[in-house]
Amino acid sequence: MRAPSISLPRVAAVTPIPRLTNRTRAWLACLSCITFLVMLFVAAALLGRSGLDIDFLHRKLAPSLAYPFGTDWLGRDMLTRTVLGLCRSLAIGLLAAGCSSVISIVLGIMAGTMGRRVDSVLSLLIDTVMATPHLVLLILVSFACGGGPQGIIIAVAVSHWPRLARIIRAELLQLRESEFIHLSRKLGKTPSWIALHHLLPHLLPQFMIGLILMFPHAILHAAGLTFLGFGLTPHEPSIGMLLSESMRHLSTGYWWLAILPGLSLVFTVKLFDILGNNLRTLLDPRTAQE
Amino acid sequence: MLRAEKICYRYDKDIPLLEGVICTINSGEIVGLPGPSGCGKSTLARLMAGFDHPQSGIIFCNDQALPASGFSPVQMIFQHPELAVNPRWKIGKILAEGNTDCSELLQRFGIGLNQLERYPHELSGGELQRITLIRAMTPATRYLIADEMTASLDPATQALIWQTVLSWAKSRQVGVLAISHDASLLNCICDRIDNGFCLQSPSSHLREPIAA
Q: Hey, which end of chain A has fewer CB within 10 Å, N or C?
């Protein structure tokens, strides 16, 4: 007797949605951050400075299609002011973080390689700067340097280097004592070869991620100093100035003057954060191949 | 001949660790160095490989002092291979740092060519230890100091590694100093056991734990 054949339920062939790997996702995130930042500068060039002209016919307009970010009490287009202000903040942040990271890499390498005495002096300096309240140091230095863009850049540069310097110093001290460096010497490699092939690949990711994560601090502090009146002059658009001016009009119901530029600043800062974290994923061999 | 002549070394100036230690390895000889933990086996290994310098006494390699720079004829293998390789390098680059012609050794150690494209964290401890060995087993290597080289590996890998290293050392007249707690392993693989060292450094020299 033949057993009745069992018919298995048919499963419709489902084409699986291709799952993105960590690496692809990190690349996509980095690319979209960079694209957005480039677009910001392109938008600034396209919008031009016409939106900054005073126009009393279009004062205090709420956000609309013609004026996506509204207009202020002098009839200036808030979108143009925000975009130009962000670009200015980014340029200042770039310069300040760049100067700061140069200070940190020089002092970090000096502390990590020039012996115990130099190390203890530099460590004391690092601790001193880190122990000083950030904002106080920023205000003092920026005021002493005469305010303006150069005041902000110098202030941010001299107050932000210790964290990265400490990371580079620690990394160097740890690397110098590691077995694979000792072994490399015994395999006949010269100190310069070891610095180029062993130390640099370890220091470079730390440096780049430190630099990128320093941008948001620099941008926020540049805006903060301007908000407090120690930074940029009022006639140039900057995010700090926009926020500080809008304070006078917030209580009268002109919410778009503060909220939209403020959100754009938060968004831009968050982008750098995402960029830094994804770069870390890409550069670390432990996560780069997942 | 690799010879440590009346070596003295102490980490703490009041507590001697190595006092007048003499240790000799001839070409092609496998010497075992047993001893309890903390008696200074690894310190002696580091001194003989030139990683540290003795406070007194001299290390001779073929009647000359150990070279300060350039390729050292005395190579050392550590217990933890994951610390002995650069974690940011692929295996191929790690091998090429010491040994540029290693296809035969790769085959003898059973390392596939596909492993060369991987990073150290993607390999097991046994595979990684074989990689550090291949890197050190160059034609210019005259002495190999193995400090607990197979202590953290499974017996099968341990046997494979020692078999390959011993046949390589015998065929090229390379002297090996095998350091281990495992007396039976040393009895099995060594031509000679150097017991003098652990008698000279009794554990009474070690610092007593300070009572709280």
A: N
CA A290 to chain B, closest CA, distance in angstroms equals: 11
What is the count of structural domains for chain B? 1
Domain limits at A241? 92-288
- In this prediction, residue A108 carries a pLDDT of 92
B83·A285 Cβ contact <8 A: no
B69 contacts A186? CB cut-off 8 A: no
Enclosing domain of residue B58: 2-205
Integer-rounded Cα radius of gyration of chain B: 17
pLDDT tens, A198-237?
999 899 888 988 888 888 888 888 888 888 888 787 777 7
Asked whether residue B175 is domain-assigned, the answer is yes
A179 part of contact set with chain B, CB < 8 Å: yes
> What confidence score (pLDDT) does residue B203 get?
44
Is there a domain that residue A232 lies in?
Answer: yes
Q: Cβ-count burial of A255 within 10 angstroms (0-12 exposed, 13-18 middle, 19+ buried)?
A: middle
How far is the C-alpha of A275 from the C-alpha of A237, rounded, in Å?
26
Instruction: Calculate the average pLDDT of chain A.
Output: 85
Give the CATH number for residue B10: 3.40.50.300
Please state the ipTM of this predicted complex.
0.88
Task: Judge whether A46 lies within some domain.
Answer: no
- Over 80: is that where the pLDDT of A290 sits? no
Q: How many CB atoms lie within 10 A of CB B93?
A: 13
Q: What is the pTM of this model?
A: 0.78
Residue with the two structure tokens 């499974």: B154
Q: Give me the CATH number covering residue A129.
A: 1.10.3720.10
Yes or no: say if A73 and A255 are a contact pair by the CB < 8 Å rule: no
Residue for token pair 């119901």: A253
The minimum CA-CA distance between B177 and chain A, rounded to whole Å, is: 17
Strand B30-33 versus strand B175-179 pairing type: parallel
Distance separating alpha carbons of residues A236 and A52, to the nearest angstrom: 10
Average of per-residue pLDDT values in chain B:
87
d(CA B190, CA B32): 6
